[in-house]
Amino acid sequence: MAKKSKKQQQQQQPGGTPATVALTAAGVPFTVRSYDHDPSHPSYGEEAAEAMGVPPDRVFKTLVADVDGALTVAVVPVAGQLDLKALAAAVGGKRAVMADPALAERTTGYVRGGISPLGQRKRLPTVLDESAALHDTICVSAGRRGLEVELSPDDLTALTSATLAPIGRA
Question: Least enclosed by CB within 10 Å: which of 16, 18, 68, 153?
């Protein structure tokens, strides 16, 4: 039997995204959670937590930073902020700054506010805030605004080859 292309796999999943396709292909258990996205909400992550009724410390945002010239993904709780110095240290770098949004979108294949750590166009080094390990499951973007996936932090770490490190701050 011929192997199905990524596009064929997505077509078989109504509303599928590269993130959900990657999870399905890996055989990882996950739950898709959707909500009506409000473009006027000031924070995509906080909006997701509120709309889903999930504590903000279990909902994680995906940010793309430039660490010494290399794009790096940081996954931190929506209730806090990314500590750029800690991110740089976690990947052995010296300096980190937020990546240009257009470059982040082009590189990951996702739009801002919907960047997922999973199924990115180009796989980037990923660092997951160590607080994720405190939870049985966490929620991350499924690849578009208004769509999240809930999965175990261990599965997210394995699928993204992430490093666990204290990169979030309140």
Answer: 68
Locate 123 and state its tokens.
């796989």
Give me 55's structure tokens: 């504590």
Listed residue (21, 8, 2) closest to 121, CA to CA: 21
What is the pTM assigned to this prediction?
0.88
CB-CB contact of 127 with 91 (8 Å): yes
Q: CA angle 145-149-153, nearest 5°?
A: 130
Instruction: Summarize pLDDT for 108-145 with one digit per residue, the tens.
Output: 999 988 999 999 999 999 999 999 999 999 999 999 98
- β-partners of residue 169 are 81
